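Handoff note, outgoing to incoming analyst
You'll be picking up this chain. Sequence as last confirmed:
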Amino acid sequence: DAMVPHGGFQCAGDDNWIAIAVVDDAAWRELCRVIKRPDLEAMEELKLLGGRNAARTFVEGELTKWTQSQSVDDAESKLIAAGIAAHRVQSSDGCLADPQLAHRDAFLWVDHPNRRSIIENSRFKMSRSECTPTNRAPFVGEHTFDILADIVNYDGDRIADLAAAEVLE
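Most recent structure output, in case you need it:
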């Protein structure tokens, strides 16, 4: 694999997890410093990705010992401060409250006849193009007649027969 360690690691507390990606050998050395494990940094067989990959179970087990001793807040802040790719694993409510996701306009509130809907915005932010969804989700069957007429090319009589037979319910 291209990154080791890489994945979700349990933190202290109930159901608290952090995603961590050590993207290169320099990030590995920094991770060893953050988790206060100079012994891991000194191990010749772990200095390069190939060696860490061969020892993935060991490496990720050692990292898990550290993450389980940390609150997710502390682990995330320490890792990010050191330049290591890391972010807490969040519930839907956590995502909606996340300041970075709010800053990136990750979610949109779209008017819906029955309720207010939250949808995921485009992940791409382009300087000269707007990539924002503007429509609500359709009701089940809302466009059935249009699809049958315009895409499937059924005539009005055939669609009426299907509706009368309650096939379109």
